[in-house]
Amino acid sequence: MSYREMSAWVMGALTAALGLHYLSTYLDAAQGAGGAPPAAATFIPYVIVVVAASITAQIVLAILAPKRADTPPDERERPLLDRAGHWAGVIQAVLAVTALVTFMHREDGALLFHMIVGGLILAQVAEYALQIILLRWGS
Amino acid sequence: MTGRKRPPITNRVRELRERHGQMSQAALGDAIGVTRQTVVAIEKGHYSPSLESAFRIARLFGVGVEDVFGWDEPPA
Questions:
Q1: A87 touches A130 (CB < 8 A)
Q2: How far is the C-alpha of A16 from the C-alpha of A119, rounded, in Å?
Q3: B36–A76 C-beta distance less than 8 A
Q4: Does A78 reach chain B within 8 Å, measured CB to CB?
Q5: Residue B4: per-residue pLDDT
């Protein structure tokens, strides 16, 4: 398994786990306060945890494979990573437009907030999944 | 994966690598600046390397580019 693929597996799993945590927080809030957007006091620490966990994961990967971590993507990997990023951007745009259309119909700002954040997380997970698929089977 | 037809490019990378003291795919990758996975893809014909990498491979084995890569299609 290449370093890029290993990194995509780790970061994808981490992002998916944090996304599921966000979803469970949203579902809890939806049952209580009608799905209100999270308070800054809980959302900002969540974002900090996401960033810190991502940096920690990258540091651990770099310690495990220092030489490979230092090497930039090669000529085969670069266009594949670009393609994964492109399609993740498309997914994010579709989800953002879906959130906006939903807002136009339901006029629920809290739902718009959750759909945008959820869309960001889903698009990121999709990018890592596409990286794994393309690095393994694409060329 | 992409649905594109692969060009009829053949190569003797594996044969030359084995002749070159059973050089490993990782060692070849390090020598020409690509990953082991890219060397695997080249050997299987799943990926056509850049002209630069093709020349690097040929020079490493002390042969010409056409001794490593070929175009396996009858002339029109």
A1: yes
A2: 12
A3: no
A4: no
A5: 63
Burial class (CB in 10 A: 0-12, 13-18, 19+), A81: middle
Q: And the tokens for A14?
A: 């981490």
Give mean pLDDT, residues A70-86: 91
- Chain B contact for A40, CB < 8 A? no
* B33 with A138: Cβ contact below 8 A: no
Res. A90: pLDDT tops 90: yes
Shortest CA distance from A80: residue in chain B: B2
ipTM greater than 0.85, yes or no?
A: no
Confidence of residue B2 (pLDDT cuts 50, 70, 90): very low
Q: A137 to chain B: which residues are within 8 Å by CB?
A: 1
The CATH class for the domain spanning B9-63 reads mainly alpha
Mutate to test the interface with B, among A5, A82, A86, A139 (most CBs of B within 10 A): A139
Map tokens 């030489």 to a residue: A67
Q: Of the candidates B25, B4, B37, B56, which has an alpha carbon nearest to the alpha carbon of residue A136?
A: B37
The structure tokens 């944090």 sit at: A18
Domain boundaries, chain A: 3-137
d(CA A108, CA A36): 9
Cα–Cα distance between A57 and A51 in angstroms, integer? 10
Q: Are residues A75 and B37, on separate chains, in Cβ contact within 8 Å?
A: no
Mean pLDDT of the region A77-83: 94
